[in-house]
């Protein structure tokens, strides 16, 4: 029962409202990301779910249990933090087994407890129960650390330490796995491989996961759905493709991927296309709008760059004249910065070997299909 439902959650710190009426419905088995800039309330939301923070008002359900009066350690949530929060004086196995030991300790009779205390104090004189060993080794195998079970965690790389933290959360078989920026301390290459590791394990176990990040690429590549947060509010919820192709505001368009945002005034409609005029451009969009002042959103990869003397049928596509300010070769892609009126547009074109790159100062024509201009 790992669904999470949050209704009208408000959290204030003194006069400051950190969360302003948050509503979320996260399905069992879903990988859900909370994405937003620093200070928007992601961690506070997570801490309210985990039970580390008391909501000012509103309700939180994990499965069909209202968790308001349930302490953090009884909510059946596993947590993974940015700082791995491992015990440096314990080896990998003991770090992962620790919570199981504590659970057993809490549920044992007093005589049995004395034995477990002794084992916890000095593992050399005791053994973990067979069930614990099996559980821990199974989960260590999952995170590919079964060969490192006896290593001290201080001897591990950052990625390995984060996998121990993940194993420690998973071994408790939580209903919900909460991860707060777990990859932020890792270098680029490790981040990529850990994204895959976490996603694969989450899918294998069918566990509900809530993942906090300010990195849109991380959220897009891992999550089934994303809630974008801004200043204590949820501003849009959707799948990565929903958010990318239909951002609800310029803020989201810019936060989820790179966007060109051109401010303009709607002049009218012609042949089913909305005509927008802005500073130094006239553009037509297949989008309908009732607004007069709009933001025209154009993704860099939806623009093509042609030579200034190219003959292009302007009834079929937008044609915008501009001047290349900078061209950057990025391997498979060439990124152009092109001055168009008062805007510098970003254009990403696929690099084909042998095709020449337009240099700085070249006059060019940019083409954008009408259906690729989103009006917000
Ligand atoms: P980051 O990505 O930087 O971690 P975040 O989106 O997770 O940011 P939160 O940590 O949830 O943001 O904080 C939201 C707001 O609430 C911030 O302005 C923060 O300063 C404030 N805040 C969080 N905890 C407290 C607290 N205990 N007392 C006062 N203000 C707090």
From TrEMBL:
SUPFAM superfamilies: MOP-like, P-loop containing nucleoside triphosphate hydrolases. Keywords: ATP-binding, Nucleotide-binding, Transport. The keyword ATP-binding applies. Residues 4-256 form the ABC transporter domain. It comes from the Bacteria. InterPro entries: AAA+_ATPase, ABC_SmlMolc_Importer, ABC_transporter-like_ATP-bd, ABC_transporter-like_CS, Mo/tungstate-bd_C_term_dom, NA-bd_OB-fold, P-loop_NTPase, Transp-assoc_OB_typ2. PROSITE patterns: ABC_TRANSPORTER_1, ABC_TRANSPORTER_2. The keyword ATP-binding applies. This is ABC-type Fe3+/spermidine/putrescine transport system ATPase subunit. It comes from Sporosarcina psychrophila.
